[in-house]
Write a structure and sequence with these properties.
Layout (H helix, E strand, L loop, with lengths): L11 E12 L2 E7 L2 E3 L3 E5 L6 H8 L7 E6 L2 E2 L4 H5 L2 E4 L11 H11 L6 H13 L15 H12 L6 E5 L7 H16 L3 E6 L2 H7 L2 E6 L2 E7 H6 L3 E5 L3 H16 L7 E6 L5 E6 L5 H9 L7 E5 L3 H8 L11 E2 L8 H7 L11
Parallel strand pairs: 4-9, 4-10, 7-8, 8-9
Antiparallel strand pairs: 1-2, 1-3, 1-5, 5-6, 10-11, 11-16, 12-14, 12-15, 13-14
Helix pairs in contact: 3-4, 5-6
Amino acid sequence: MNDFSPQYNNETIISTSRLTKAFGKLVAVNDLELQVMRGDVFGFLGPNGSGKTTTIRMLLGLIRPTAGRAILFGMDNTYQLPTILQRIGAIVETPVFYPYLSGIDNLRVIASGSGMTSGSINDRRLVEVLDIVELRSYEKLAYRKYSLGMKQRLGIAAALLTDPELVMLDEPTNGLDPAGVIEIRRLIKRLSALGKTIFLSSHILYEVQQVCNRVAILKKGNLLKQGNVAELLASSQQVEVRMSRNEEAHYALHLIQQVQAQGADWIANAHIEQNSQYQEILIIDAPTDRSAEINALLSRQNLFAAEIHPRAGSLEELYLEVTTQGNPPGPGMEALTPARPMMPEIQSIINPSAKIPGNGK
């Protein structure tokens, strides 16, 4: 019998167990297990078509899972969805507003439709959310005159009207110019400072790295990695060394490789790269706090670095690493690859002729 009991405690906002969605023969989300904690800015990462939006729709009860469970705020969304939704503000698609109404009038319409009664208290809330998304000075401007970034921020303002604990944003920077992307990034940080838990779906890994403390990486419906951003990136720390001459860089590489072979297990790898000035740079896969030790090691062999500094890891590099077959998980990572085999009951839905072990067929 399969265990469909998600892990949960008072600090857990979202917990899923073997959450799966199949559309005919296409398994959009396979056996997904997520943990989003209170106060997280949680990045849900993956290319277009990886199952991110499908997952969000299942969490919000917009579509039913084929198998598995989703627990939000300690409640099963199969049975307690109305209560759950009262604590969530979400944007899954581009919000629809009346083009000839002002920003604040559009919010009044949404507030009325969501059951908020009119009055001074709710008027104050409209002003508060416009301040949060930095649209107060444009509140009387017709929506049709808003830039794309302003429209997106007004949509987030609408999601904040009921002062939700959890804010779910699906690709909030899609189609935005660099200024719009920065505005959304700043807004997400502001919401986090207000104590909101943020669930941010995106395929723009650089932006996620700027704001998220925890991430999960999805590919073709399968969860590859999940964990703390700092811990995930620590596994890909590097030290960059530039010597005065290319031949010195190659000699330094040989020396580092010798030290590694002699048992320096803190050195994972080393190689030479060429920079934009066609200089050959030594890249050492090692903790950045070992930079001084590397410098001393080279100096003892009369090799004096012109520059030595940490080379920060990135989610983009991590994503490329974990989506390449055959790479073992690094230290500090919650390794979730390879994905578990598809559950027999899901196989039977996709392929009715398949035999399910133990059911006598």
